[in-house]
Structure prediction request, 1094 residues.
Amino acid sequence: MSVNQSAPPVPPFEQPQPIYPGYHQSSYGGQPGSTALPTHYGAYNGPVPGYQQTPPQGVSRAPPSSGVPPASTASAPCGQAAYGQFSQGDVQNGPSSTVHLQRLPGSQQFGSPLAPVVSQPALLQPYGPPPTSGQVTAQLAGMQISGAVAPVPPPSGLGYGLPTPLASASGSFPNSGPYGSYPQGQALPLSQAQGPPGVLPPQRSAPPLASNFTSPASGGPRMPSMTGPLLPGQDFGGPPVSQPNHVSSTPQALTPGTQITGHPGPLPPMHSPQQPGYQLQQNGSFGPARSPQANYGSPYPATPTFGSQPGPPQPLPPKRLDPDAIPSPIQVIEDDRNNRGSEPFVTGIRGQVPPLVTTNFLVKDQGNASPRYIRCTSYNIPCTSDMAKQAQVPLAAVIKPLASLPPEEASPYVVDHGESGPLRCNRCKAYMCPFMQFIEGGRRFQCCFCSCINDVPPQYFQHLDHTGKRVDTYDRPELSMGSYEFLATVDYCKNNKIPSPPAFIFMIDVSYNAIRTGLVKLLCEELKSLLDYLPREGGAEESAIRIGFVTYNKVLHFYNVKSSLAQPQMMVVSDVADMFVPLLDGFLVNINESRAVITSLLDQIPEMFSDTRETETVFAPVIQAGMEALKAAECSGKLFIFHTSLPIAEAPGKLKNRDDRKLINTDKEKTLFQPQTGAYQSLAKECVAQGCCVDLFLFPNQYVDVATLSVVPQLTGGSVYKYACFQVENDQERFLSDLRRDVQKVVGFDAVMRVRTSTGIRAVDFFGAFYMSNTTDVELAGLDGDKTVTVEFKHDDRLNEESGALLQCALLYTSCAGQRRLRIHNLALNCCTQLADLYRNCETDTLINYMAKFAYRGVLNSPVKTVRDTLITQCAQILACYRKNCASPSSAGQLILPECMKLLPVYLNCVLKSDILQPGAEVTTDDRAYVRQLVTSMDVAETNVFFYPRLLPLTKSPIENTTEPPAVRASEERLSNGDIYLLENGLNLFLWVGASVQQGVVQSLFNVSSFSQITSGLSVLPILDNPLSNKVRGLIDSLRAQRSRYMKLIVVKQEDKLEMLFKHFLVEDKSLSGGASYVDFLCHMHKEIRQLLS
Ligand SMILES: [Zn+2]
Prediction:
């Protein structure tokens, strides 16, 4: 700022800028005349008398969303003893996709009719042909909930509704029914229940289930006495004959139609109860449960005290459900990868269920939008609302209109229909798409959404071939592709004016905290180079985006960085109550033209404020200023706000600290998620009208009220990033990585999204980061390639099996070069009159995405317990409806899950025990608000890994194998103390080191000679040139590259304090905050279902 008249550090800015007179007062509506100006340019006040002492020093804290379990319980959980039982070679849930166990035809009788039945579904069936959308019913282990089991004391802190029943249901098998008593065959039949006998196309065979249910052996190895033949699950490849329990399913089970006529009633059991291993389990050895799950009775054989501590004999030793006998996410993911990862997904067929989000696959657009753009909860919709109500399966689409594609896939073609604009239906305004029907020799077309007959404009006329198709169909993306873009005409522009290119405004908090932590210096340094990477259109040489700079604490400083200036000039606006922009010309500039001035500015900012004592900040006026600047420049754009503290300075949007953890689990808990003032909603509305998107980077040392501060980012389609207790040395990599990605990513501005549907259904509800001023238009000041909008549909009429149902998502937006465009995505779905078809074409990952968003919005208005209960009830209704209408008759003791939904319970449980719905003691209010808004715009892949983290063993696979190792289930019992694991959930990344890991491994990875020398909490691995180090670091890089936010690494040593943090993510286990284990939840779900059915 040398140009400025005053002495450093901050020159008072007193004289009106030359450019000021050009500024149009009218744009600031309500501003006093220009004569008032000088008063607005108050000199920057240096040290503020009111300066308060140094803010609390940051303590190292959990990353966002990670709950640190209460320390007090630290002693309880399964410590090392649990691991102690695993030798390095212990069972992990490795890929067992190659396992083909045959179910023996001759099932064996099991002991008592009352015995709990663990039905063996089609599981053990060898994999069938490449999966279709078919389904196989999963039958769950006989969670004979109502058996003659001695009641287990109600679990403490049980998360869901009905603790008492659950207690008895909690997986405690009547001891008469060891795992041996698996009834056979019945499971299978169900699978095919849906179709008319014999008519079904080849379905996806049930392989995934197979391995899940082959459990007994895999449970075995954890028992000390079971050695030798009882090999880990991954060894299933071996002949199972030696293990009676591994009798496989009857092949016929998979035969279409068998279910209906096949095995009415319970089938003969096949497992011998004589399995020696299970005898062990029955003699009370299971009594001592793992500490955290004491009340449930441990489902885990690997209880630390097992074998060494007999425990009091139990009258009826509870029989636990074998964790290996229940559907495994890992197995389902592996199976889908194996079955569907090799061939491209071709979108030409209506109602096809795409591969899972966890499978890598290529997409060929042949008329329907790629699943990268749209995923649905079901690809076959019930024809009537009655059916839909009966099934309770939410009908929803998760839409990511600007999703980025892999390089092998082409971006949507841009279609130009000339001055007349895109061709649309006159009545419903749907855009031309492959489903429109041309008639009368091509002179007219019938709208596929509303049936209206429209004339084809002369310039668009084309002849039809003998099949009634236009002969130019394949020359026109809008007639042959699921996704494409139209160039919009001026009619689609605000005020009928072609928009100016958007602008980015960087707004930097320069209060004491921001300076002290080194944030301002780091940021300014980074911006110097980062600004060369602003988003560009196609092959453009330089970005059309203009940039501007503001710094602020209690007052705002605008900078004139006009290229003709030798030095930047600062203007201070201290009247934050009535924010206006003091300059127009020179505020928003082209980086290349003004590079020298900008570089100078970025060099000077950290210096100018280096001695600041100002701790107070404003926030709403900052947004207001940015928005006014865009308004004055008549463009849309994005504000990048870097903010450190609760805005307590006297100004609009001033906040107070209202954090109160005592509200948790009360009816007032919802207030923690609500903004404390309506000011930010009003501001957001103005921003949306201007196409002003706000991205917020938070660097709090304490409570900053994320729930309130994130209102504007949330409603403007922006992003929030949070770096608690930011320290340059620890957090710069994460912050800079996020910043680079955020600045560079492609964004559409000033967008409106509309979802049209064919007659019979309509979009009724929307979830995401956007604003709605009516019931149909989703308004997005900005929309980037990471954001999704989840849309729920309801029936308003009967659907037709023949015509199916159509969705068309149209996004009108301004590209980063200022071009107005329409992006269109079309998707055709099937409709069914049989519920079984619905259940056969569902996608659980998408269901969970919807249900999580539904629940996370619900906490704004209802107690979290109500929200949890609602989810559980809905899930039970979904599964009960299947059981009642689609599954074959079978004993009530069996839990029967639709193949496509067999992971619904485990995933739903993860949602229920998440930090939003069941917070641990260490999760802050800000973390909860932060995660809540993050999840709101997550896509299906993100919610999938967020709720069920990936746990990757690192030394199991050969070192030269550089592909990602197969994951294991997120449970402590899957950890071997001789191994090292990576765990990631899209936000957090842990490297867990077992206490008995080989010394050579420790040396190779950490460059220290023993486990004890590894630094706990380490966030960077040393760069060592050896195969293991290269592999692990490469894997970490690759995981980070897959996620939209940088995941900071935390090295966790077994039995170290930090391990509690890590265990929070082992979601199949009971959580310290009271969340149920997977096994227990499954039992609870079964009970709920049975109640509904009885
Ligand atoms: Zn129409």
Summary: Residues 425, 427-428, 430, 447, 449-450, 452 surround zinc ion (CB under 6 Å). Residues 892 and 1094 are 9 Å apart (CA to CA). The chain has a mean pLDDT of 77.
